[in-house]
UniProtKB/TrEMBL annotation:
Binds 1 potassium ion per subunit. Its main location: membrane. The chain crosses the membrane at residues 12-31, 43-63, 110-128, 140-162, 174-195, 221-242, 254-274, 307-329, 349-367. This is NAD(P)H-hydrate epimerase. Its EC number is 5.1.99.6. It catalyses: (6R)-NADPHX = (6S)-NADPHX; (6R)-NADHX = (6S)-NADHX. Keywords: Isomerase, Kinase, Membrane, Metal-binding, NAD, NADP, Nucleotide-binding, Potassium, Transferase, Transmembrane, Transmembrane helix.
Amino acid sequence: MNVYVSDITLAVASFPLIALAITLPYLVYQYRKAGSVPWLRTFAVYSFAFYLLCAYFLVLLPLPADRSVVVPYAQTPQLVPFSFVREFLAETTFSLGDPATWLPTLRDPYVYEAVFNVLLLVPLGMYLRYYFRRTWRQTLLIGFLVTLSFETTQLTGLWGLYEHPYRLFDVDDLILNTLGAMVGFWAVGPALRVLPDIRLVALEAREAGVRASATRRALSFAIDLSLACAAAVLLGALNIAISTGSFPGGKWFGSGWLARASFAFFFGIVPIAFRGRTFGQMLLKLRIVRPNADPVRWYQILARYGLLFLFAWAPFEIAFGVGMLDVFAEGRFGWSAPLPSMEGASTTWVWLAFMALWIATLVVRAVRAKLRGAPFVMLNGVLSNTRVMTEAGVALMRKQRTVLDVDEVRALEGLIAQDGTPLSELMERAGRAVAEEVRAWVPDPAPVVVLAGAGNNGGDGWVCARALAEEGYPVTLVAPDIAERMKVEPARSTALAVFADAARNALPLRVLVAPDADVLEGALEGARAVVDAILGTGFSGEEVREPSASWIRAANRRRFEGARRAGRGRHRKRACERGDHERRGDRSLLPKAHGAPFAVAVDVPSGLSAQSGRAARPCFFADLTVTMLAFKPGLSSPAARACGTIRLASLVDIGPHLKRLRGEQDGQTRSAE
Ligand SMILES: NC(=O)C1=CN([C@@H]2O[C@H](COP(=O)(O)OP(=O)(O)OC[C@H]3O[C@@H](n4cnc5c(N)ncnc54)[C@H](O)[C@@H]3O)[C@@H](O)[C@H]2O)[C@@H](O)CC1
Ligand SMILES: [K+]
């Protein structure tokens, strides 16, 4: 037992080193991939790394001191399955009929080693299910492969580092370890109800990643600063090495000038050459842009960093003089060296006071930004009219600037159709885009409910349902009437075509026509995702008419109250009945019930006016809204929190069509005048 403890102690002792080594790459990776660094994921990653370290230490240590040592018992692999059971029965006093022998056997090495071997991979199974979202089959396979890697490492004496195996290759270990992974997989099941969904965490992180957080910017600045300092030191050393002796004073330039040149390179030339990105910013997917996300001009970059260095540097240079930086020439290091020799300490104080003031303004700005949920803007950013944004934020902001009125979207559709892409094709692309989002969320086929209205928004729903059914998802499509009786084109022909396809190819697609409340609730209960294709840009009015209203209410109930049989969440029910989740101006939304399906709205959540942004009662609450062609004005109203994350499905390159539309609009205004 002590062996285990000492291995784990060793792992604890060496983990900080590993943590240090993985932190920078982890932060960079996380910012690049997910956009921000949520604490839950970070905790999961670090604890997983720590666990793996422990596991490997337990399997491999202690290392024999001598590379050529022969450990007799480890030489012949143990290949008979379950021999530990036989040995245990043969060598211990254990007897099933005699309870007095039970307790002592627990302390028997055969038993605790077996238990240990099971426990070793229990955490792996837990991580695989919760964090990596693996199925039980994948967990079984991965658990087995990890065990196999342990055992082969032992069999080969640390891959040839030792001349002979020093630990025993044992088939029983393979069986018990793999069993442990499966135990972990099943044991974490109940916890999944309480733990936050790791995918939701990722989605939130992506959303948070649109904003360039102070940490992310500080990290990128630290990278650039390190590069500039390293280059300055290197150049300084080179300068001395090359020029010693050949010049009076032993060098070509003062190293102060080299430092300045190096800073000018990394903070001036590089971002100008790479259109607003320093190396650190490239690594962390940040960019210097104008406040409206337009590209910056070269002089704005110079102003941005010039001002920054003016604030931080100029008072310092004025106070200490240029020679101060000349560490190689002076043979002294750091700015503390000349302090005693200052002609009067007053300049030092001036500089320190200036720095303190500047840092204080930074802190105030940071706190204010945090409180208001606004981006953190530094004074040099204000003066140079530049901001640092994430690439995702820049892309989003540029797209969002093209906000089209609902009428304009309709006109645009007409122009696109004239140019050869009919509305039915747009509908096909729209439905598939929504299906893609559902699949990204629910990667393995699982029940999905599509609520499809009578208009073209419903048509998108039909396409989405077919796309998912083609991938094996059991889809329930809820429609107000049979497809033949739909009136709007191309929704009608699309629905008919989907219906025919489903029958011909035996797709797992079931259509419920005007189901009663119980049937609908039953369908929603088992769903992993629900698609709202009831009402889109064609919705108008203060109230939603039936049956759409009941459908929206049923979906919202499932979302906020949980499943009807769960018996929990009575308080939620009351809150829901009071309409807490719908109240306008109420900033915090009721949290989702556990196990509630992922809710995707097509184009706009049903009940929300895409034009005015007013939410009718009821209004569908979505996690994600996939809006078609362009952003609409209503999507940025306060009521638009019903949208969840908003994603744009471009469907076509609208640039040229938009130009034509705007041209035509101008022509009309002029002729009207
Ligand atoms: N913009 C685009 O490029 C595309 C748009 N398409 C979809 O088409 C949608 C627009 O289609 P439609 O113009 O047919 O309109 P919708 O399908 O959005 O809505 C029309 C239906 O809503 C009903 N309705 C209106 N007000 C109501 C109320 N107060 N209560 C209950 N029902 C009400 C109408 O009776 C009609 O059945 C878009 O939202 C989008 O999803 C896609 O099919 C293709 C591409
Ligand atoms: K909708």
